[in-house]
Write a structure and sequence with these properties.
Number of domains of chain B: 3
Shape of chain B: globular
Shape of chain A: globular
Number of strands of chain B: 24
Number of strands of chain A: 28
Helix content of chain A: 25-40%
Mean pLDDT of chain A: 86
Strand content of chain A: 25-35%
Low-confidence stretches of chain B: 1-25, 104-108, 460-471, 563-567
Radius of gyration of chain A: 27 Å
Number of domains of chain A: 2
Mean pLDDT of chain B: 86
Largest sheet of chain B: 8 strands, mixed
Oligomer: heterodimer
Distance between the termini of chain B: 64 Å
Number of helices of chain B: 9
Chain lengths: 601, 567
């Protein structure tokens, strides 16, 4: 008995020693981090108290950001790796945001055409590569030079901006920078880095599946691992650390239909934690499904044109909502310029590129009365599926908070960074990367139907229109990256229509379905969403990277690197009464002259 | 006992096998796969309405380690492998094919190629490589047929060109194989070396940028073509670049560069030599910060061997690249000058890729075969001042029907005639002392207050196109004023300017101090390693302008105190 006790004591002592070692090592790690943070704080204090050109204003706000970017790209085709970068690459970026003037009028939200003409790379001036070593002297040295340069630029910009503002009738009274309470937060990573050898083995393994599919012309597996560790301090007393790891695994397959039309499809898996990756067996079976689906599409039919009811089912509803509304649910400020003609062109150009903000629609109805929309950055999962847009603190060091965007069909508010726009003067803690973006969008409805009821309603509406079938969309695109590549390819070959829908079916009254290929949405816009007639009762999750509002880059400049922000959307199936679809037109390239070397001889 | 013997025997057998393998390398499975797919493509496409008449595959394996450090801290360290495929597929015939320059180009072909370029397995999977070759061949074939139609229409519509030479030259097939090169680098040791090497720069507030970059790579190229050539070349390459920039009080930025290159892992200088060079760079930078600025000046000058070498590479070398005499957009400076004097009679110029070293310097522009499978050979460009031959790829020009082994490219670009090792030789050399005396004599004869001595140079850029003024701009980094009494004074802010043809005629003497400049040269076929070597030259009249100056003043605050935060 006593022996046992002694044993227990000895063991708990052992545990205590272990715990102590553990704590010491954590403390040591934090100490090491502190070298970088201390360098940032020390140089920030010096810049705020001493940096001043004689007879000129001092900076009223300075923020430093140091980002450690670790990444690796693995790709494979037919069982062999096509890229290999050895150990994961590591780089460190330093960003400086410096403001002179005051919160109501400062050097930002100004685009100097004069400067941009002379040096188009000026938008990247606020960012620099820094040493990988936690070398106090060298981090401060880099901050010193970058702060000096940004201060001189800021003074020039502010005086040019004041001159430009003098020329215009009626000034814009919206302040340049919002005041936010200081906070400190440490949200460093608890997630282990993935084992690159395992990921390589996975890429080899699942890409080899296509070795027995000679009719698939091209296939690839790519796995991107990135991890951004950010440190941030600003002169208002805010500081934070944050980690954003991400693994993206994509499998792509391409072939040509009998008439030559290119067919391309892919699936994407995104996780924050390597432990959340599907098993290799699950990935194999998804890859086999992809292969089978692409081959099936080769002989699938198309249609010339369709105007009528369309059901966006499951994640396709979240996807189309995110694509159309995602970028528009955030504010975007058009900078003042020293060339007012250009300002107008600029504004129009970026509206077309990024989708214009809905800021002029506040108070207007944008959805049916039975639909509401919220942004909920704190929610980590929905119905067991992880939400990747989750955020505790944004890139300006503002606490992320829940925002009601649309209440019973009416637009109430938009997501904002610290760059105010008319009517929205406070940050919602939504700056992710270069601009404000949503985090987790929740679309809710008070008029729901079961999947069966929705299909019946779809068929009823089709029948009323005299159609002998209706359309169901199960996937819109193959993700933003794939759509982007497809768009570039189309531009290169002279085409220009929207990418084809990834998965769309003809649904007949007897319940049978036929897949369609080469069909795209003809004129989808957010206006169409007002005509949603019913929604499902089982919301599904879709996550994707979002292109930022481009205006912001020119308003406040680029002071951070890393991946595009990821947004999750949770929405029920959406039934539209009227959607136009059209056939993707050729000319298509000819079918291959020779068979693949994979084909049996 | 028996067991031991058997093990011993097995070991012997193993060793024997191993030796055998080393002596007779096994056939390269990747080269075999390339050859098989090439044969299959040519045979099957023979029956197509427009069959290809030429096809080549080039597969380039590259492993590159890059390490860089600044002011004693590591900035980046990477280790990457790539395998890139280049395909040359031609339809039509040698006389007129799809590569024919379209006057009035419409669409960027390179962009399309980039988007469609297949993924090539890095690992030696012959079937995977063949699938990639097949994908690329299909894509290139379609494009070649389309382009040939455009070419045929274009030829009908436009006026006959001045130069009616063929589009492609027929060349003899070659079989050549180098063993896969050994490549080793102690990356961790180099990270430490570069940290140590760049630490001394941090002690000087005037020096705003300072870094050391090590690039070590091994490149293995496999090439097969439908004429029967099969070539494998494998070369390691090591390069260290030191860069430091100081800022003068008036805002002028003063960069200095120091480059070391070698084909051998132990060919770079040792730490003592490098540290001494860093100290010298620091001394020079501190002197440059305080040096007076030169005014625009026209008068006599000496160019050191390195300066002359860059000068010749930029203003002469690029203008003797063959296709420039044919391209209607080029100025064609030397087109009609063959067998005429283009340089003073004591100067000859060679381009010799077969030369591996000159004096103590390795020459980075050397190779056994060019990128079109043509053996490298020494080309006499100028003999005793008379222009003899252009640098030729497989694109013929009037009077020059064949390649002389100078078709080069960076992966992803079409090959073009490029320089290799440019060598300027003088048949009448004097000592550097004597050259300086001649400079003083010129200064006095022309009644100039001083002459110039260009000691080192950054490399420049040159435009050979017609639409841009046909001038050159070579950037000197270390320049001295030389006064009539022989005194030398370091100056800053000098840019060398002028028009090419007039500069050549002003060269009046050369010395015996030959120096080598190893570098990488960028032009239409991408970046390729080149060297240039030349003696010091006395030029009777050179023109300099004031260097474009940064308007940004020096930093307002002093450098942060390194000690303040420590640990």
């Amino acid at each position: 008995m006593s022996m046992l006790l002694g044993d227990k004591i000895a063991r708990s002592k052992g545990i205590a020693v272990l715990a102590l070692v553990f704590l010491v090592s954590i403390a040591k790690a934090q100490n090491q981090d502190d070298v970088v943070m201390r360098a940032m704080r020390d140089e920030l204090a010096r810049s705020m108290s001493q940096l001043q050109l004689p007879q000129m204003e001092r900076p009223y706000f300075v923020a430093y950001r140091v980002q450690d970017l670790v990444g690796d790209q693995i790709s494979a085709t037919l069982g062999g790796l096509t890229t290999s970068s050895g150990p994961p690459s590591h780089s460190r970026l330093i960003g400086v945001e410096l403001r002179v003037g005051d919160y109501s009028l400062d050097n930002t939200n100004f685009l100097s055409m004069q400067r941009l003409g002379g040096d188009p790379m000026a938008v990247f001036a606020a960012i620099r590569e820094a040493s990988l070593d936690d070398n106090y002297a060298q981090i401060r040295r880099t901050l010193w030079l970058l702060t000096d340069r940004q201060y001189k630029r800021a003074l020039e910009d502010l005086s040019a901006k004041r001159a430009a503002m003098k020329d215009r009738a009626g000034g814009d009274s919206v302040p340049d920078f919002s005041k936010e309470p200081p906070i400190q937060m440490n949200a460093a990573s608890t997630v282990a880095a993935p084992n690159i050898g395992d990921l390589e083995a996975t890429a080899r393994d699942i890409s080899a599946i296509f070795r027995s599919a000679p009719d698939i012309d091209r296939s690839a597996v790519t796995i991107n691992y990135t991890s951004v560790h950010s440190r941030y301090v600003n002169s208002e007393g805010t500081s934070f650390t944050r980690s954003d790891p991400l693994i993206q695994l994509r499998v792509t397959a391409q072939t040509q239909a009998v008439d030559g039309q290119p067919i391309s499809d892919s699936f994407l898996v995104m996780v924050r934690n390597p432990a959340d990756l599907p098993t290799r067996d699950q990935l194999r079976s998804r890859t086999q499904q992809l292969s089978a689906f692409v081959l099936k599409l080769r002989s699938a039919s198309s249609l010339d044109r369709y105007n009528g009811p369309v059901l966006f089912e499951g994640p396709a509803a979240s996807e189309i909502f995110l694509e159309q509304f995602g970028p528009r649910l955030a504010t975007s400020r058009t900078p003042v310029s020293d060339n007012s003609q250009f300002e107008m062109v600029f504004s129009q150009m970026f509206d077309r590129l990024g989708g214009s903000s809905l800021q002029d629609k506040i108070g207007a109805r944008v959805l049916p009365e039975f639909v509401s929309v919220r942004d909920v950055p704190s929610q980590t999962e929905f119905d067991g599926a992880p939400l990747l847009g989750v955020s505790a603190i944004d890139d300006d060091g503002v606490r992320s908070r829940e925002t009601i965007l649309v209440d019973r069909g009416v637009l109430k508010n938009l997501l904002a960074s610290r760059d105010p726009v008319r009517g929205i003067l406070e940050s919602t803690g939504s700056r992710h990367g270069w601009s404000a973006t949503p985090s987790n969008i929740f679309v809710t409805s008070t008029k729901t139907m079961t999947p069966e009821e929705l299909k019946q309603e779809l068929m009823r509406r089709a029948k009323d229109r005299g159609l002998d079938y209706a359309l169901v969309v199960r996937r819109v695109g193959a993700g933003s990256e794939a759509s982007f590549i497809e768009m570039m390819q189309q531009m290169a070959t002279g085409g220009g229509s929207r990418p084809s829908l990834a998965e769309v079916y003809k649904l007949y009254p007897d319940g049978h379905e036929e897949p369609l290929r080469g069909v795209h949405l003809a004129d989808m816009s957010i206006e169409a969403f007002k005509e949603i007639v019913a929604t499902g009762d089982r919301p599904a999750v879709y996550s994707d990277q979002l292109m930022p509002q481009m205006n912001s880059i020119f308003s406040v400049g680029i002071s951070s690197g890393g991946e595009l922000p990821i947004v999750s959307c949770v929405a029920p199936s959406l039934l539209f009464d009227e959607v136009s679809l059209a056939k993707s037109e050729g000319p298509f390239p000819k079918a291959p002259m020779l068979r693949s070397p994979l084909a049996p001889k | 006992m028996r067991v031991t013997v058997r093990i011993w025997l097995a070991l012997c057998l193993f060793c024997g096998n191993h030796l055998l393998v080393a002596q007779q390398p096994p056939a390269d499975p990747i080269l075999q796969a390339m050859s098989q797919e090439l044969t299959r493509s040519m045979q099957n496409l023979k029956t197509a309405p427009v069959p290809p008449y030429f096809l080549s595959y080039e597969l380039t394996d590259n492993r590159a380690i890059n390490v860089s450090a600044a002011f004693g801290a590591l900035v980046s360290s990477s280790d990457r492998r790539t395998r890139v495929l280049d395909v040359d597929l031609r339809v039509g015939d040698y006389k007129l094919d799809n590569s024919h320059a379209l006057r009035q180009q419409t669409m960027s072909d390179t962009f399309q190629d980039f988007l469609g370029s297949p993924l090539v397995p890095l690992e030696d999977d012959p079937l995977g490589v063949r699938v990639a070759l097949w994908q690329a061949t299909e894509q290139r074939y379609r494009r070649a047929v389309e382009r040939l139609q455009q070419v045929q229409a274009n030829v009908q519509v436009k006026v006959a060109p001045e130069d009616t030479s063929a589009d492609f030259s027929a060349e003899a097939p070659h079989l050549y194989s180098e063993p896969i090169a050994n490549f080793s680098l102690d990356t961790k040791a180099w990270e430490t070396r570069l940290r140590n090497l760049t630490t001394p720069f941090a002690q000087h507030a005037e020096i705003l940028e300072a870094n050391a970059q090590l690039g070590a790579e091994v490149e293995t190229r496999r090439y097969v073509n439908s004429e029967g050539s099969q070539i494998r070349m494998s070369t390691p390459f090591y390069r260290l670049i030191l860069t430091a920039t100081a800022k003068a009080d008036d805002g002028m930025e003063l960069p200095l560069y120091q480059t070391y290159t070698s084909f051998h892992s132990d060919g770079l200088p040792d730490d003592a030599t490098l540290s001494a060079d860093v100290d010298k760079m620091i001394r020079t930078l501190l002197a440059l910060v305080k040096a007076p600025i030169t005014d625009p000046y026209t008068g006599p000058a000496i160019l050191s061997g390195r300066a002359s070498a860059v000068f010749f590479h930029e203003i002469f070398g690029h203008r003797v690249e063959g296709q420039r005499q044919k391209n209607e957009d080029d100025a064609q400076t030397f087109k009609k000058k063959v067998n005429q004097a283009v340089l003073p009679d004591f100067l000859s110029v060679y381009s010799d890729p077969t030369l591996r070293r000159l004096g103590h310097s390795e020459l980075v522009g050397s190779y056994a075969f060019d990128d079109e499978g043509v053996p490298a050979r020494k080309v006499t460009v100028v003999e005793n001042g008379i222009l003899k031959e252009f640098l030729m790829s497989r694109t013929p020009i009037a009077g020059f029907d064949h390649s002389n082994g100078h078709g080069r490219h960076q992966q992803g670009y079409a090959a073009a005639a490029r320089q290799s090792n440019l060598i300027v030789e003088s048949s009448r050399s004097v000592s550097r002392e004597e050259l300086k005396k001649r400079l003083l004599a010129e200064i006095k004869a022309e009644n100039k207050p001083y002459g110039l001595f260009f000691d080192d140079i950054e490399g420049g850029f040159t435009f050979t196109q017609r639409v841009i003024p046909n001038a050159f701009n070579v950037r000197p980094t270390i320049v001295y004023r030389v006064y009539p009494d022989g005194r030398q004074e370091l100056v800053r802010g000098v840019d060398l300017i002028g028009t090419p043809l007039t500069s050549f005629s002003k060269i009046v003497a050369a010395d015996d101090d030959v120096e080598v400049f190893n570098g990488v040269c960028g032009a239409e076929s991408g970046w390729v390693p080149v060297s240039a070597s030349a003696p010091g030259l006395l030029v009777s009249q050179i023109e300099v302008q004031r260097k474009e100056k940064s308007q940004e003043r020096a930093p307002l605050l002093p450098p942060p105190a390194a000690s303040a935060g420590g640990k």
